[in-house]
Amino acid sequence: MVADPPVRPGYPGPVTIRPHSDPVSGGRHPSIVDRIAAATTPRVPFSVEFYPPRDEAAEDRLWRAAEVFSELGAAFVSVTYGAGGSTRDRTVRVVERVVRETDLVPIAHLTAVGHPVSELREMIESYGRAGVTNILALRGDPPGDPLGEWTPHPEGLLYAEQLVRLIHEVGDFHVGVASFPEGHYRARDLDHDTDVLVSKLRAGAEYSITQMFWDVEDYLRLRDRVAAADAEQGAKPVIPGLMPVTSLRQVRRMVELSGCALPDDLATRLQTAAGDGPEENRAAVREVGIEFATQLCERLIAEGAPCLHFNTLNFSRATQEVLANLSMAPAPGVAGGAVLN
């Protein structure tokens, strides 16, 4: 998930943005908070994250996965937005097709990086016209190097808090934000990171979705910090972001780009499973990854997580295997199960 940075020291507050003269209204979908509250899936609701596809084969894979998750009763699907708006057109196209052709509830990601306020207004309005009700507001990562220096557009916004306020000014949308169980890598400390999240919630965000993490204690302490800082904001859902590991090389790259940490014990198990050959043993890595994700989810369910949000990489099988282990879905490909993908 695209990262949000903390507020810079000395920042005086939100910029003044001229209200739009013809506000748009979100479409037919319920809010994410209402959606997860009304979900009927066993044990706890689940949701998924898609990336805009790069080619025709990836496009086909995404829509096969969407069919599976629709059949399994996903509470919602979020669609990411590339750094610097690099996937802008593809993101809009995927979200519009979700609205037109599926019964899934979409969240459209929107990042402030690289855009003047005028373009952000245009994007928000286009989502509203497409029938999108839910937007995830993110400052975004610098294009090229996600961990590099972030430079705001001269006519743009500095912080996700400002983007939350802008979305509400443009139209009647439900807004979510990102949160970071280990703390954002640009934050001075965890208290600073907590203050930033609380400010985004106070600006009108109704929930947060976390960056992927591997230690449930990090997630629980995040909830505790928000509740201690502001009880009202602490009552809003903190949806855990998860990813079943199916490739050691892939997860190492994602950890490198996100700034989160892979626990030593999990890294050791995955490395042992991968073996010492020139090619990793993907089947063994996958087995470890699915088992670990299942255990992580079991603990989250026991701790009252409001929803399980899976980064799918546009595949369905690994997520469905975890859901099957949790007795929340049939195993892939079995009688009465979803389409194998």
Q: What features would you describe in this structure?
A:
The chain is α/β, with parallel strands linked by helices and 341 residues long. It has one domain: TIM Barrel, CATH 3.20.20. The chain has 12 helices and 11 strands. It has helices at residues 32-38, 56-72, 88-101, 117-129, 160-170, 190-202, 216-229, 231-234, 248-258, 264-274, 282-302, 317-325, and strands spanning 24-25, 46-50, 77-79, 106-111, 134-138, 171-172, 174-179, 207-210, 238-239, 241-242, 308-311. A 9-stranded parallel sheet has the order 9-8-7-5-4-3-2-11-10, with helices on both faces. α6 links the parallel β7 and β8 (207-210). α11 crosses α12. The chain is globular and about 50 Å long. Mean pLDDT is 86; it is low at 1-27.
- N-C termini distance: 23 Å
Oligomer: single chain
- Element order: H for helix, E for strand: EHEHEHEHEHEEHEHHEEHHHEH
Number of domain units:
1
Label the overall shape: globular
Helix/strand structural class: alpha/beta
Radius of gyration over C-alpha positions, nearest whole angstrom: 19 Å
CATH architecture: Alpha-Beta Barrel
Give the averaged pLDDT, no decimals: 86
- Number of helices in the DSSP assignment: 12
Largest beta-sheet characterization: 9 strands, parallel
Hey, roughly how much beta strand do the residues contain? 5-15%
Low-pLDDT ranges? 1-27
The strands making up the biggest β-sheet line up spatially as 9-8-7-5-4-3-2-11-10
CATH class descriptor name: Alpha Beta
Task: State the CATH topology.
Answer: TIM Barrel
Can you give the helix content as a percent range?
A: 40-55%
How many β strands by DSSP? Answer: 11
